[in-house]
Amino acid sequence: QMADPFLYNTGDRSHYGCLGHEVQIEYLKAYVCRPSFFTDKAVIVVHDVFGWQFPDIRYIVDLIAGHGYLAICPDFFKGTEPWKSTDHWADFADWMKDHDPMKVDKEADVVLKYLKEQCGAKKIGIVGFSWGGMAVHHLMLKNPQLTAGVSLYGIIRDSEERYNLLNPTFFIFGEKDHTISLDQVFLLEEKLKQYCKVSYKIKVYPGQVHGFAQLKPEDMKPDDKPYIDEARKDMIDWIKMFV
């Protein structure tokens, strides 16, 4: 049995009591958390392969809401089964065919419409983790309504048209991520320098593996905690700068 090259260890997870609630938006379910005051700023959170109900991602939604944003994590898998840690890695490619992070435009539009029309949002940013990081990279090339994006360890698809970002985008990577080589990160940086007309930033966090930034505090290893905290602060700072 080869080690799952793409998924971080979801082992024994501490229970997480969420602060937000679930809503139905057209054909999508979504988890929403609002700050204690009205804001016209919102952040869409794109989950990883474990889906919109995974406790780690809800923790991130609540964290972003705590910084004064209406935060929402829609079910980008549209009610289909997320990947589970008990699934077999050999089936992952087939599963991905039905869960393509480049095919999220329609869902993004449904959520943007809801945020603008039902929630009074005027500025909307987006952050995504792993599968969601790939989705964010795609959406920041395609959807001008998204004021800023943060893509956390989204695998980099290599093609020329991946660099013309429409709005400020921040790419976060772990140095020890065995799904994304540092060569790919350097190439991304080189191409963005060449083609990108908007603000962007790329940062690699020492010693960190795939999935490092969404761990809940009680699931963190002490050595990793400073980097996890730094990545989160960097993510929030980027959003605060542009959203």
From TrEMBL:
It comes from the Eukaryota. InterPro entries: AB_hydrolase_fold, CMBL, Dienelactn_hydro. GO terms for cellular component: cytosol. Gene3D superfamilies: alpha/beta hydrolase (3.40.50.1820). It is found in: Cytoplasm, Cytosol. Residues 29-241 form the Dienelactone hydrolase domain. One of its GO terms (molecular function) is hydrolase activity. Belongs to the dienelactone hydrolase family. This is Carboxymethylenebutenolidase homolog. It comes from Manacus vitellinus.
